[in-house]
């Protein structure tokens, strides 16, 4: 589950959206709680946790001090990560199309 959480700071990404932070928070809460979707009895706690983690993520990103990269390693890593993410998305879609079991 948490493998789909992406690095959300420069130089790995240039622009982080609130959707990016919410998606990472949702994956984190799913992993910690052990449930993909909460029951009716747990939905308030689940949504509250996602909101808190999203807010903490925003605060962290706002406060991080990131040195400018003096090498191209950060850009190469970002390119590698983008290619790996695209490959994983293609594999995921292929698994859906073929009806194969896979994880989300």
Explain what you see.
This protein has 104 residues and is mainly alpha-helical. It has one domain (2-98). Helices cover 61% and strands 0% of the residues. It has helices at residues 18-33, 43-63, 73-98. The chain is flat and about 50 Å long.
Compose a concise summary of this entry.
By secondary structure, this protein is mainly alpha-helical. Helix content is 61%, strand content 0%.
Characteristics:
about 0% strand; about 100 residues; mainly alpha
* Average pLDDT for all residues: 81
Shape: flat
The overall strand count is 0
Structural classification? mainly alpha
What topology emerges from the helices and strands here?
Layout: H1 18-33, H2 43-63, H3 73-98
């Amino acid at each position: 589950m948490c493998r789909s959480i992406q690095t959300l700071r420069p130089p790995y990404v240039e622009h982080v959206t609130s959707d990016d932070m919410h998606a990472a928070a949702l994956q984190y809460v799913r992993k910690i709680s052990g449930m993909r979707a909460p029951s009716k009895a747990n939905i308030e706690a689940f949504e509250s946790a996602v909101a808190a983690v999203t807010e903490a993520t925003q605060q962290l990103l706002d406060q991080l001090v990131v040195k400018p990269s003096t090498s191209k390693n950060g850009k190469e890593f970002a390119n590698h990560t983008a290619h790996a993410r695209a490959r994983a998305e293609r594999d995921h879609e292929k698994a859906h199309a073929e009806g194969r079991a896979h994880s989300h």
